[in-house]
Specification:
By secondary structure, the chain is α+β, with helices and mostly antiparallel strands. It has two domains: about 1-95, no CATH class; about 135-260, Trna Endonuclease, Chain: A, domain 1 (3-Layer(aba) Sandwich). The protein has helices spanning about 1-25, 65-95, 100-105, 110-115, 125-130, 160-170, 215-230, 250-260; strands spanning about 35-40, 40-50, 55-60, 145-150, 155, 175, 180, 185-190, 190-195, 200-210, 240. A four-stranded mixed beta sheet has the order 6-9-10-11.
Length: about 260
Amino acid sequence: MANIIEFVSSRISQLKRAVKQAEKAQSSFPEGRLRTSRTGGRLRFYEVTDKGDTNGKYLHKEELATIRILAQKDYNKHFLKAARSELEMLEKFLLKYTDPAEDIYNNLVPEKKNLVTPYILPDDLIAKEWQSKTFRPNPYKPENKTSDTKRGEKVRSKSEAFIADTLYEFGIPYRYEYPVRMVNGELRYPDFTLLKVRTREVIYLEHFGKMGDEGYRRDTMEKMDLYRASGIYPGKNLIFTYETEDHPLDIGGMRKMLHEIFC
């Protein structure tokens, strides 16, 4: 559950920066407040400066600068109240937060773990269970799988082997050429289907290995269109690598990408 602590800590930092910015802005606001009234479908603005005045002075459209700064003042007031309340709540949460419930199972001795069925699966069991699922692999030209991986598989190119070995090294659960049903009912086989364990997200990785070939590029564009239609979007649940004959796979860049996303 480290991701909860990470998220809350990040949110606290974001709120503190915003509160500081809002507090600094307070000194620039004029006296008074903005009152609004809707008449005949039109919103009208009034500047109220006296405590006993419930109407205020009507602000014409030429006074837009005054309208804006009074609206900002009103927003600032309500934002600070909400942000300070949220900050207080989150900081109390961090102070009181102890070990997640999953740790009761994680801290058992191995002999007891073998006797117990956990109510919430820890990350390592989630990964193991996901990884162990059997499936029918891509039937297309299995003889083209000639490159070996450290996990003992055969893949279709040396570049795919580099990717598979990096996934294995980083401990990222993956399935090679796992079948995925597209929106048109067609089965497709992304090169790698990955599990982001801490969020339980499934992310697809495609390696486009012949981008120098015009026909291959055309097929790739059609594949990307089908992925988008099927709810698989680049930058969300689809990542990719690529190469041409003149520009081989950027192994360093690929490793950095995977580390940033999954580790």
